[in-house]
């Protein structure tokens, strides 16, 4: 097998080019638009069409061949391929979550600051996707004959429902083995179940002019805002309101705007989060500003008071292999209808068997009904799980440990990736455990947060691990790649 130090030297020699190519795609706003899903040229909007064109152009610039699957996804490869079902594919995605507010840097003009890249998507998932491409470039430039062809597949709607991979699976054959470069090292062998619901109720209060929070259903919101008519607030309540240390108060003519600030985080990584919805609703209830809407607001408070379902009595003591995380993530108010998006990630096992999420969903429906909401299930994905003792999982974990010098074992997570859609697939990097991020402010610097950042050196090491892993896989027979 190739010497690790020589591989590392090659990777670092490409540092400037890697940064350049990440910038080429980060500088394109590629939020997937599924509300106006169109066929062929722009199924997920122009931004995703442009970014896929640019990614495939980068592949061609590096001497690869490419295929465009009607702008749902694209493939980059360099060998004359055998049948796809006898190949290995690395998967990444080019779509991003909306930038949101409170950035100190330009989200779609990538910044290089010291050892960090900053911009929407540098970490999730454009940086790792370019990293995977350069792992393939090493194999190509080194002239290593691959017993099993390897290619890179890039999708355009991972953040909004994975319609890209659904389209691919429906119309094309799957590879023998898939590696998803959209998590952390070493091997992710399981993903929590996902329940995403939408609660709706009609409010009779005409004093509410606006009510909104969050920009994506899978992130704890950093800000929540309500605009009320001044006339609904008595002089006494106004004095109490001004004494609040949790709300930003802005008055303009006949209205008053109340804003709560929290700390954003992905719903699967909530340990440092503060839900702005919970802060705002708690103050609305404490100050008795909307007494006629108390029942609905109390329901929303239960779903946003903590990120573990404790206040809402959703936690199941029989859960294992993961923890329940999530809560209310978005609020919209239009034509007197209040809509609340709720996203929970539930553990893989209950009483030692794979969870089905039924009890959690039933509890959410009861809570919704008692608070006066109708409940619409937008998404329910069961957990994905492969036993960690599989030889291939152990082999890839060993590669990571030998290159990094770290002893982390395989793990499970609350996030969701293409892994759960694909047969015979694992998550594998490219983030290192205890990754370094550029955190100028609390709630900034990580993926899905303002000022999303990526440590350049850690990405370089991730590419080294990938190259070593691909070389290891090249020593195996197709039959050795089967996990089930």
From TrEMBL:
Keywords: Dipeptidase, Hydrolase, Metal-binding, Metalloprotease, Protease, Zinc. GO terms for molecular function: acetylornithine deacetylase activity; dipeptidase activity; metallopeptidase activity; zinc ion binding. InterPro entries: Bact_exopeptidase_dim_dom, M20A_pepV-rel, Peptidase_M20, Peptidase_M20A. SUPFAM superfamilies: Bacterial exopeptidase dimerisation domain (SSF55031), Zn-dependent exopeptidases (SSF53187). Its cofactor is Zn(2+). One of its GO terms (biological process) is L-arginine biosynthetic process. Gene3D superfamilies: 3.30.70.360, Zn peptidases. Pfam families: Peptidase_M20. It comes from the Bacteria. PANTHER family: ACETYLORNITHINE DEACETYLASE (PTHR43808), N-ACETYL-L-CITRULLINE DEACETYLASE (PTHR43808:SF31). Belongs to the peptidase M20A family. This is Succinyl-diaminopimelate desuccinylase.
